[in-house]
Inverse folding.
């Protein structure tokens, strides 16, 4: 990661938390399922980490979100998964913020890719 993004990572999460307080009071689109009973956030985090995901540091936090992870695909895109305290799992494919910071903020090229996520989450969704 270049110096610019290391710098941004130091303050941007605080900017996002402030934005959330005033403007972000909803869950983002693309519900893919509910976490099966017997699995929890730690189990899902381990599974996603084994599959190349990392914590999404510079992402908005949706209400009730307890886990937020992403997997970069090349330099331009990422897969993004969120788990909520009621077991909902939401996920989408989108521009990575490092590649397209402005278009990322406006959800340009955001896609469900539901079948991809369901295959990845086999055994974790009901």
């Amino acid at each position: 990661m270049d110096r610019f993004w290391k710098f941004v990572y130091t303050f941007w999460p605080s900017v996002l938390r402030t934005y959330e307080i005033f403007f972000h009071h909803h869950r983002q689109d693309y519900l893919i399922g509910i976490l099966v009973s017997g699995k929890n956030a730690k189990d899902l985090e381990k599974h996603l980490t084994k599959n190349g995901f990392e914590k999404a540091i510079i992402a908005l936090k949706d209400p009730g979100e307890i886990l937020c992870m992403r997997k970069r695909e090349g330099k331009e895109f990422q897969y993004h998964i969120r788990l909520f305290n009621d077991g909902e799992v939401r996920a989408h494919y989108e521009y990575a913020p490092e590649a397209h910071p402005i278009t990322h903020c406006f959800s340009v090229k955001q896609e469900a890719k539901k079948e991809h996520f369901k295959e990845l989450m086999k055994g974790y969704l009901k």
Q: What stands out?
A: The CA atoms of residues 18 and 78 lie 24 Å apart. The chain has four helices and five strands. The first strand starts at residue 31 and ends at 34.
